[in-house]
Amino acid sequence: MASVTGSSFAISSLSSSFNPNKACLKTSSLSIKGISFPSLRVKPATRRFSISCAAKPETVDKVCEIVKKQLALPSDSAVNGESKFIALGADSLDTVEIVMGLEEAFGITVEEENAQTIATVQDAADLIEDLVAKKC
């Protein structure tokens, strides 16, 4: 096992530039007190534009009410976007029933692979808004 000890560490003269018209790798080398380390490679990110937003508060509130109903929770139960289905006492069958309730309430169809990614109320609300937007 190797270790590096010392009171200071400095990297100088490292620079990189990105030209979106060229898909190339930039390589820099690192040397500390005369010891060379393997080259560091920086690969530019692919050009992609994406926006991710949280679901509207109204959607989250509606999902909270559906979750409370499906799990037969008291109306004063604290359920919010960060609430995890498991923490609320939901098992896998309850989660399927929640998804079915959401499909009915929002007029959507949730594919099985998408349903398996839902762990929180916020996950469900985000997925619903995504599916509703695709439906339009």
UniProtKB/TrEMBL annotation:
<comment type="similarity">
    <text>Belongs to the acyl carrier protein (ACP) family.</text>
</comment>
<dbReference type="InterPro" id="IPR020806">
    <property type="entry name" value="PKS_PP-bd"/>
</dbReference>
<dbReference type="InterPro" id="IPR044813">
    <property type="entry name" value="ACP_chloroplastic"/>
</dbReference>
<feature type="domain" description="Carrier">
    <location>
        <begin position="57"/>
        <end position="132"/>
    </location>
</feature>
<dbReference type="InterPro" id="IPR006162">
    <property type="entry name" value="Ppantetheine_attach_site"/>
</dbReference>
<comment type="function">
    <text>Carrier of the growing fatty acid chain in fatty acid biosynthesis.</text>
</comment>
<keyword id="KW-0809">Transit peptide</keyword>
<dbReference type="GO" id="GO:0009507">
    <property type="term" value="C:chloroplast"/>
</dbReference>
<dbReference type="GO" id="GO:0031177">
    <property type="term" value="F:phosphopantetheine binding"/>
</dbReference>
<protein>
    <recommendedName>
        <fullName>Acyl carrier protein</fullName>
    </recommendedName>
</protein>
<keyword id="KW-0443">Lipid metabolism</keyword>
<keyword id="KW-0597">Phosphoprotein</keyword>
<keyword id="KW-0150">Chloroplast</keyword>
<keyword id="KW-0934">Plastid</keyword>
<dbReference type="Pfam" id="PF00550">
    <property type="entry name" value="PP-binding"/>
</dbReference>
<dbReference type="GO" id="GO:0000036">
    <property type="term" value="F:acyl carrier activity"/>
</dbReference>
<dbReference type="InterPro" id="IPR009081">
    <property type="entry name" value="PP-bd_ACP"/>
</dbReference>
<keyword id="KW-0276">Fatty acid metabolism</keyword>
<dbReference type="InterPro" id="IPR003231">
    <property type="entry name" value="ACP"/>
</dbReference>
<keyword id="KW-0275">Fatty acid biosynthesis</keyword>
<keyword id="KW-0596">Phosphopantetheine</keyword>
<keyword id="KW-0444">Lipid biosynthesis</keyword>
<dbReference type="InterPro" id="IPR036736">
    <property type="entry name" value="ACP-like_sf"/>
</dbReference>
